[in-house]
Design a protein that fits this description.
Number of domains of chain A: 2
Number of domains of chain B: 1
Largest interface: A-B, 39 and 29 residues
Bound molecules: adenosine-5'-triphosphate, magnesium ion
Order of helices and strands of chain B: HHHHHHHEEHHHHHHHH
CATH topology of the largest domain in chain A: Rossmann fold
CATH class of the largest domain in chain A: Alpha Beta
CATH superfamily of the largest domain in chain A: P-loop containing nucleotide triphosphate hydrolases
Radius of gyration of chain B: 20 Å
Radius of gyration of chain A: 23 Å
Shape of chain B: globular
Strand order of the largest sheet of chain B: 1-2
Oligomer: heterodimer
Strand content of chain A: 15-25%
Largest sheet of chain B: 2 strands, antiparallel
Number of helices of chain A: 17
Chain lengths: 494, 326
């Protein structure tokens, strides 16, 4: 790709960017939120038409006006935002538009089923091809997206943050897959905000900053700090541990809660000003537990106490009204109104909470402040959320709850898709909320993150508590062991 | 400056296109039959469009929330038949009957909304079934031969005038202001747009989505009752000719022409010019002696033209956005 330029109304997203990719290589593409990584890949895949610049594939100049044209030239694209159709089954999603047909142009369902099974198996995925995509967890959806790209034989595979909601186990599967594809001589472009992956997966790294390419380096030539500095253009404070804090009285208490799905007999306490981390593998019931507290699936059994008073979450509205906030991992489907402005997206919850007339001017003043504090990059509060980069979308949801106010914050993957520098900002923000007395429960598949920000960590295995660790006791090994269900290693109890 | 704003604000753009459309149609109509442009006739057109306008406000709310209400036509018919039969020309019965019918409307719409929210039955199926039930109830009640007549009070609302201005037009203006305010400033109304754009996200943002669905369908049915009352006041008797399926289709057409989509994109206010355009076209075609079929064809064409205009030129489809950038 040469001299690629693209301007959106109000934003110069790409400015004279050039990258090259060789066969048998993994190219890392990094940059802060809104640097233009996804836009560049959208240009490569014919989703966005560039204002200027040229694309060459195998030395031949190409112009793609649609995703299909790019696919026909052997490019597979795993987009940052999931594109599965919830109402269709996994197998239908995988082969959408490419179904194997009989001579009568009907679909060969048996073949569809078999092929899907094979691909899923190669990814170590334990789901039925006939399962509806809408019933899958975010991590599984992401794996299915990866499977979709593997199905047809591509020369170039673009992966835009494929691991943003995966745990180490699945990331390992992906790693092996990438290695295999590299050996087969394929070229891979890999986008991620997780620096460990960038360093272990890639051969070469190209860095984007504010829509410009600020350099390409061989992975061996650069270290973590150097790369982060290149991305940000400045030094970034990174290891930002939570200070030992004096936590207050118990704020939220779960007493042998039986919730949706596997969640069984979970008892935990959350104190004021505390961050409680929840670790667990995919399918361990982490999301279900949070959603039980938030009233999406009211608990089947057990008692909850909030601020010393009995609390029975029956709907998100009621939970919100009592001061519970929830940031879902699946921000496009559960979080955002893509066609509406930032202002509309953020003000909604506060409007419901205040139960008063909607006063746009008041909301605007206060949201302006929140947005500045979070560093949301956008032309203005009236910009549509669809035009924001992934990281900025995440901040919009955070802004919504800060604007509304809360006692307890439940966060599912707080920094999903957020760049290194901004992660620190988000941690600071969580600590600030702590200081104001907010209790926070964090679910994260990034163990380093969990260890860094939590005052206390509990682990879930198959829907049940399998361990609890104070900040001093917690380290990677013991937490991981508890997460994988090795009960004998469990130390300490509440 | 103003042009810039019109380009960037979709709802403003829709409104401007609708006004231009009205002017265009009136211009063409004026060339064919100049009599049409006389002030008296224009006021008459406004009066004719009131019942449709009221129903279209309700229909727009439902559509913006991601649903559709196929029962409004039957509810209008029901209101007319019950109002005439129960009032039987007596002023002192008017207010109790009006209150009763409004309550009945809330009950019917609320039931549809409740079942849609609780069981997940698709709105189209639910409201179609409700429409059948209501129509059956009408036939049962009237025995197929509706009777009774409106009272002077109801006639005043439906057909009276204050100076040159029809009372129903005044009622409509007040009602429209209230409704627009409600859907802009009050959370029960305002959240409608969010439900349509992403129902799940609305739930996760703390909107009591089920209650809101009940509210929206009850609102739509209430508007249909009000519209049926105005009709009754104008016609003066009960009749199966009032409301019905054609009227329901017109309310959907008005909402769609008014720029409202199933994705919560749009503005309930669009229903007003939308209803006026439909009434205008039907009136022109009728004056040209074109039969009902012609009206249907014309309406379909207008819907397609307007929707293409909104999605294409107004740049709301994702494809266009990309091109607009280039
Ligand atoms: N369709 C669009 N209209 C207007 N602006 C856009 C559009 N798409 C992207 N942008 C803007 O272009 C810039 C680059 O966005 P892009 O999505 O490429 O960032 P990114 O590097 O992928 O960030 P992230 O790491 O957060 O995913 C951002 O400022 C974004 O707001
Ligand atoms: Mg991106």
């Amino acid at each position: 790709m040469e001299n690629i330029g693209k301007t959106f109304p109000g934003v110069k997203a790409l400015d004279d960017v050039g990258i090259e990719l060789y066969g048998g290589e993994v190219l890392g593409l990094v940059g802060e939120n809104g640097a233009g990584k996804s836009t560049l890949m959208n240009v490569l895949n014919g989703i966005v038409q560039p204002d200027e610049g040229k694309i060459y594939v195998d030395g031949e100049e190409k112009e793609f006006s649609s995703l299909i044209e790019a696919q026909n030239s052997g490019i597979a694209y795993i987009q940052q935002e999931l594109n599965l159709i919830d109402e269709l089954s996994v197998q239908e999603n995988l082969f959408l538009g490419k179904e194997p047909l009989t001579p009568f142009r009907t679909i060969k369902f048996r073949e569809l089923f078999k092929k899907t099974q094979e691909v899923l198996k190669s990814l170590g995925l334990n789901i039925s091809p006939r399962e509806k995509a809408g019933n899958l967890s975010l991590a599984k959806k992401q794996m299915v997206e990866i499977a979709k790209a593997l199905l047809f034989d591509a020369k170039i595979i673009v992966m835009d943050e494929p691991t943003s909601s995966l745990t180490d186990e699945e990331i390992n599967v992906l790693y092996k897959l990438i290695c295999r594809m590299r050996e087969e001589g394929k070229g891979i472009i890999y986008i991620s905000h997780r620096m460990e992956e960038i360093f272990s997966f890639t051969d070469r790294i190209s860095v984007l900053r504010n829509g410009a390419c600020v350099g390409s380096k061989s992975t061996k030539e650069i270290d973590h700090d150097g790369l982060v500095r290149m991305m940000a253009g400045r030094d970034v404070e990174e290891r930002f541990f939570k200070e030992e804090t004096q936590t207050g009285p118990v704020l939220l208490e779960l007493d042998s809660i039986h919730g949706q799905g596997k969640v069984e007999d979970v008892s935990i306490q959350l104190r004021k000003g505390e961050i409680l981390g929840i670790g667990g593998l995919m399918g361990s019931g982490r999301t279900e537990l949070l959603e039980t507290i938030f009233g999406i699936f009211p608990p089947r059994e057990g008692r909850l106490t909030l601020d010393g008073k009995p609390f029975k979450p029956t709907s998100p509205y009621q939970a919100m009204d009592q001061g519970i906030a929830y940031i879902p991992e699946d921000r496009e489907s559960k979080g955002l109104f893509l066609d509406f402005s930032i202002l509309a997206n953020v003000s909604l919850t506060r409007m419901e909470k205040d139960k008063s007339l909607y006063n746009e001017a008041n909301h605007r003043i206060s949201i302006d402040r929140v947005s500045e504090k979070l560093g949301i990059v956008a032309p203005g509060l009236d910009s549509r959320v669809e035009n924001l980069s992934g990281g900025n979308r995440q901040k919009v949801i955070l802004a919504r709850w800060i604007h509304a106010g809360m006692k307890v914050l439940l966060v599912n993957e707080p920094t999903r898709g957020i760049d290194v520098g901004t992660k620190t900002e988000i941690y600071k923000l969580l600590y600030d909320l702590n200081k104001q007395g907010v209790g926070i429960i964090v679910v994260s598949s990034e163990l380093t993150e969990l260890l860094m920000i939590s005052d206390r960590i509990v682990t879930l295995y198959e829907g049940q508590l399998s361990g609890e660790f104070s900040r001093k006791e917690a380290n990677k090994e013991v937490v991981l062991q508890a997460m994988t269900g090795k009960k004998e290693m469990v130390t300490g109890t509440g | 400056m103003l042009l810039e704003r019109i380009r960037n604000d979709r709802n403003l753009k829709v409104m401007v296109s609708l006004l231009l459309m009205i002017i265009l149609i009136l211009g063409i109509a004026g060339m064919i039959t100049p009599r049409l442009l006389q002030p008296g006739h224009l006021i008459e057109l406004a009066r004719q469009s009131v019942p449709l306008g009221i129903t279209a406000l309700g229909q727009s709310a439902v559509i913006l929330s991601g649903g559709i209400d196929l029962s409004v036509g039957s509810i209008v018919t029901m209101t007319n038949i019950l109002a005439a039969d129960m009032i039987r020309g007596r002023d002192n019965r008017t207010i109790p009957v009006v209150l009763f019918l409004l309550a009945l409307g809330i009950l019917i719409g609320g039931t549809s909304g409740f079942l849609i929210a609780k069981t997940g039955i698709p709105p189209m199926v639910m409201t179609f079934a409700m429409s059948s039930i209501v129509r059956g109830g009408d036939l049962l009640y009237s025995g197929g031969a509706p009777g009774g007549r409106a009272s002077p009070m109801l006639r005043f609302f439906g057909a009276g005038r204050v100076g040159p201005v029809p009372v129903s037009v005044i009622i409509f203006i007040i009602l429209a202001i209230l409704v627009l305010f409600w859907f802009k400033k009050v959370r029960t109304g305002r959240s409608t747009y969010f439900l349509g754009n992403n129902f799940r996200a609305a739930k996760y943002a703390g909107v009591p989505v089920e209650r809101r669905i009940v509210f929206i369908y009850a609102f739509s049915a209430t508007m249909a009752v009000l519209s049926g009352l105005i009709f009754s006041g104008y016609i003066g008797v009960g009749s199966f000719e009032v409301g019905g399926e054609a009227f329901m289709l017109n309310s959907v057409a008005s909402a769609v022409i008014g720029g409202n989509t199933f994705l919560g994109i749009g503005n309930i206010a669009g229903a007003i010019p939308g209803a006026f355009i439909i009434t205008l076209i039907n009136s022109i075609l009728r004056s040209l002696g074109i039969a009902v079929t012609g009206q249907h064809i014309m309406q379909g064409v207008i819907i397609i033209v307007m929707v293409v205009l909104y999605t294409g030129q107004i740049g709301f489809s994702r494809k266009k956005l990309k091109k607009a950038g280039g």
